């Protein structure tokens, strides 16, 4: 499977790339805007932080297909291996088709239904990103959407992968992986919640106490 961090925080990517088995980093316009720096400065530094094998994702801003294609090409000039995120609107779908024909890898984003995600995959998107928590927050069932999308891609678009996104809890992410998703992207807080159970630290402290009592030291 592929694990990504959903962030443009370079210091945190550098720190967590040492710890987590990461394949790369995803961003979106809100994430880059919150960082405050120019996208053209941030993207090469993020690529550097994940290493040359790491995969970086960044999104276009234009609303027209031709504008999206032009921005995608500019993003790829900035970071050659970058996967271009395209919102799956009517124009976005046309852009995914054009970019696929040009050999530029895309991720269909802002996916709120399995039907929408399937269309992006059929248009040639390498990845499709369903927004799990945003669907839940609207009173929908984000996990069910992902289950349906995963099944549809396996049946009808096997060259595309679900990259499940928009999480508020580790449970949501695990449910997507159990549904068969090959890839997920986690915001920093959710990634850290994977290891944040207080019982973990307590267990390690108890091992240390027992060892110290018996051998008078904390090393083997
Ligand atoms: C990924 O493609 C999305 O940009 C991202 O995961 C959205 O997450 P949010 O709903 O927490 O903003």
From TrEMBL:
InterPro entries, sorted: Aldolase_TIM, TAL/FSA, Transaldolase_3B/F6P_aldolase, Transaldolase_AS, TSA/FSA_arc/bac
Enzyme class at the top of the EC tree: transferase
One GO biological process term: carbohydrate metabolic process
Keyword annotations from UniProtKB, A to Z: Cytoplasm, Schiff base, Transferase
Family annotation (PROSITE patterns): TRANSALDOLASE_1, TRANSALDOLASE_2
Main location: cytoplasm
Subcellular location: Cytoplasm
PANTHER family, alphabetized: FRUCTOSE-6-PHOSPHATE ALDOLASE 1-RELATED (PTHR10683:SF40), TRANSALDOLASE (PTHR10683)
Annotated protein name in UniProt: Transaldolase
Originating organism: Buttiauxella noackiae ATCC 51607
Lineage, uppermost ranks: Bacteria, Pseudomonadati, Pseudomonadota, Gammaproteobacteria, Enterobacterales
